[in-house]
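Lab meeting, item 3. Inverse folding demo.
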């Protein structure tokens, strides 16, 4: 017999989420637990532009893989609260030195952003009342001597969202409380100055309020490259700490607390 429905996956995902919540001491926030779980998900059959509507972000990985880090990869976790009217920036972003050469940056970057916006059931399709966006990109100096930011890691899957509001909602994940970004830079990006920006936006008429969020970023390179060590070295210039795991779990994750 064959059937479909989210009720089949809910017990499995709930059990995996419970393992994530139990692995840390103290337990992570709901935003962080959700971001870690979704960050590990993928579609085994590959990703197409229509798959998101049918499979979401895919199937979460095994519990230990969610918490796994190797020398050729590093996972960073940013958890903070965005204040209305302010933009959070991390400049420079700790991009691993081993993935930079000849003035270019290489490697694979994956990002998952999760937050719980205020909700209004009476607002119809506009029930999510705040929007958080993350942009990991490079900084350059333009002809006028101004520092400019260019996003280098776009939304995933790439649904070709344009600048119009409807397109941004349907194809660019605007107002979505979970966002994923991804890019593999095989030919390199012509800059080695990376920066991270997060911005908060509220609906018209909504009273601005602080918005907690969690952002997970994974950076990986070719096997054998010291990506993990380079990120740890770069983080020493920022206020950072490791996530504390319970003694029965052996894994390592780096966390930047903003």
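The presenter then showed the designed sequence:
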């Amino acid at each position: 017999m064959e059937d479909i429905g989210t009720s089949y996956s809910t017990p499995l995902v709930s059990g995996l989420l419970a393992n994530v919540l139990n692995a840390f001491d103290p337990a992570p926030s709901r935003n962080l637990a959700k971001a870690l779980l979704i960050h590990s998900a993928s579609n085994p059959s590959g990703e197409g532009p229509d798959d998101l509507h049918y499979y979401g972000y895919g199937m979460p990985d095994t519990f230990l893989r969610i918490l796994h880090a190797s020398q050729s990869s590093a996972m960073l976790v940013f958890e903070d609260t965005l204040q209305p009217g302010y933009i959070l920036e991390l400049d420079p972003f700790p991009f691993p030195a081993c993935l930079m050469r000849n003035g270019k940056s290489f490697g694979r970057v994956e990002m998952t952003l999760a937050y719980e916006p205020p909700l209004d059931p009476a607002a119809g399709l506009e029930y999510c009342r705040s929007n958080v966006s993350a942009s990991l990109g490079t900084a350059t100096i333009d002809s006028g001597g101004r520092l400019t930011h260019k996003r280098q890691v776009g939304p995933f899957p790439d649904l070709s969202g344009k600048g119009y509001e409807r397109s941004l909602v349907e194809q660019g994940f605007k107002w979505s409380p979970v966002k994923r970004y991804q890019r593999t830079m095989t030919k390199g990006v012509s800059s080695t100055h990376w920066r991270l920006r997060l911005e908060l936006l509220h609906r018209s008429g909504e009273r601005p309020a602080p918005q907690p969020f969690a952002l997970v970023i994974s950076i990986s390179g070719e096997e054998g490259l010291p990506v993990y060590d380079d990120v740890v070295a770069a983080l020493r210039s920022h206020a950072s700490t490791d996530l504390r795991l319970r003694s029965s779990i052996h894994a390592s994750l780096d966390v930047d607390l903003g």
